[in-house]
Amino acid sequence: MTKPGSPPSLVTLILLAATATMTLNLIVPSLANMARDLQADYAVISLALGGFLAVTAVVQLAVGPLADRFGRRPVVLAALVVFALASLGCALAQDAATLLAFRMLQASVVTGSVLALAIVRDTHDGADVPRQLARISMVMALAPMLGPMIGSLLDAAFGWRMIFVAYAVVGTGLLILVWVDLGETLAPRSDGPQGPGDTLPALLRAPMFWCYVACTAFSTGAFFIFLAGAPLIATSVFGISTAELGIYVGSITAGFVFGSFLTGRLGARLSSGTVMVVGRGVACAGPLAGLVLLAAGPVTPLLYFGATIFVGIGNGLTMPNSNAGAMSVRPRLAGSAAGINGATNLAVGAAVSTAAGYALAEDPAPELLLVLMLAAAVAGLLAALGAWWLTRQTRMSARKA
After folding, report:
1. What distance in Å separates the CA atoms of residue 304 and residue 367, rounded to the nearest whole number?
2. What pLDDT sits at residue 251?
3. Integer distance in angstroms from the first to the last C-alpha of the chain?
4. Within 10 A of 232 (CB to CB), how many other CB atoms are there?
């Protein structure tokens, strides 16, 4: 067993983060079968997705302060116990109400995703933080694509209940892995009274923190806008078949993976703030180039979706650095910062994707999708510039002192 304070392997952190992501969408192919077997309306069973997301946001807000108070290790272990038992409860559920009650308890798994980021901040410094976060982000980006594929195979072979059995097995395995591999990474508080900057209100009052949070949220927002509108544009405007749709819609995720890879390479040469701002510039350039191409004349689907890939690349460059920045404003409160950052991401993503869906339903124009993505990308750029400027001012003040 590891000694207290020993950092976990990167594989452990990746598994914690990926499991949290895959728990959302592994059941997507099985929703109709679940509704039929439990004799429930599909709209009710669909709460296993929408309701799960809402509870996830609340859990993210709660686990950060708990982990900052009691430590990363006990909070992660407790969350995995709840997740494994809740998964078993879902597998045994005989009615929709019971299934949904245990499904909401499964949201505890997001603790692993939140605290994996905080643990990286606990155990690394400087440019190593965004580099490690970029590696985790690459795997987290692939999880949403793999989840429905694995879920559909399990459903077809064994039925939908086996998906929840798989959750329970994975949760138990992770519990054992974390018990063995994860020592407490939160540094003990120094003796004496708590400093004025070592409190949650101080974090919430810090403009730099909110600049990083806004940068992450609007970067993610551009991605959610794409997901809300790209399938409609692809089929109604470009006549892309269902068989090809996954390739075009998945292209932005491939861009994110490539951008995350570049973050690991550029982090050794450029400052975290510089890479973050460059990423926002790349994300803005993609939709802007697409609008120019559309103004010049008809474009092919390859050119159109080639332009949107740059939003994914820009996000891959930006988000590991903006996440690291948010947790670095008050390092002792990295758990709280990660939780607030994650919950804000969900809230902004839900709002902008809903708005984009309504707007594009009224006018499914390819230009409109690019304009909406560009607006979110520009908002993220402004937030990144704000964080970069505040960081520069802070360093200048420290030098003068």
Report:
1. 10
2. 86
3. 45
4. 16
**Among the listed residues 368, 366, 362, the one whose alpha carbon sits nearest the alpha carbon of residue 234:** 366
Distance of CA 389 to the CA centre of its chain: 25
**Cα separations (Å) of 226 from 259, 313, 374?**
17, 14, 11
Given this model, what pLDDT does residue 317 score? 95
Domains of the chain are: 10-181 (1.20.1250.20), 206-400 (1.20.1250.20)
Phi, psi for residue 205 in degrees, rounded to 5: -90, -5
Amino acid code (one letter) for 311:
V
Pick from 401, 346, 379: which is nearest to 51 by CA?
Answer: 346
d(CA 271, CA 84): 41
DSSP labels, 64-113: HHHHHHH-HHHHHHHHHHHHHHHHHHHHH--SHHHHHHHHHHGGGGHHHH
Structure tokens that stand for 30 in this block:
């099985």
Q: Which two tokens stand for residue 177?
A: 């892995």
| Structural tokens at position 254 | 């491939």
Rg (CA), the chain: 21
Tell me which residue has tokens 């409160």. Answer: 333
Cα separation, 375 vs 221, in Å, equals: 10
Q: Which amino acid is at 11?
A: V
Look at the block and give the residue holding tokens 């740059």: 310
Q: How far apart are CA 191 and CA 205, in angstroms?
A: 25
pLDDT tens track for 328-376: 999 889 999 999 999 999 889 888 888 888 888 888 899 999 999 999 9
Give me the residue label for tokens 């790209």. Answer: 230
Using one digit for the tens of pLDDT, what is the confidence trace for 198-212?
Answer: 688 889 999 999 999
Distance between CA atoms of residues 159 and 185, nearest Å: 40
User: Over the chain, what is the mean pLDDT?
Assistant: 88
Q: Are 70 and 158 in contact (CB under 8 A)?
A: no
Give the tens place of pLDDT for each residue, 280-333.
999 999 999 999 999 998 889 999 999 999 999 999 999 999 999 999 999 889
Tracing tokens 């429905």 back to the chain, one arrives at 148
Cα four-point dihedral sign 282, 312, 279, 337: positive
Both structure tokens of 99 = 């299934």
Specify the pLDDT at position 378: 97
Structural tokens at position 400: 């003068």
pTM of structure: 0.86
pLDDT > 90 fraction of the chain, expressed in percent and rounded: 51
Does residue 192 have a pLDDT over 70? no
